[in-house]
Amino acid sequence: MGSGSTHLVNRYKIMEAKKKNSFKDYFQVGEAFGYFFRKKDPSRPSNFNIRVMHGINKISIIIFLLGVIFLIARKLL
Length: 77
Description:
- The chain is mostly helical.
- The protein has three helices and no strands.
């Protein structure tokens, strides 16, 4: 096998990986919920700035999700 066939095999693998995404894959919220309900990691640094940053991130996620729910409800009603 030459380098040309290796390129085709790699291209085929990329195309197969793209096909595996389904509609429900785009609406997975596991990471967002994991952000709210994760355990404290002792190896992770903790100071005031980081706590405030994570607090603001959580507020932003909640407001975004409320906005999406509002837009969906407005379209349906």
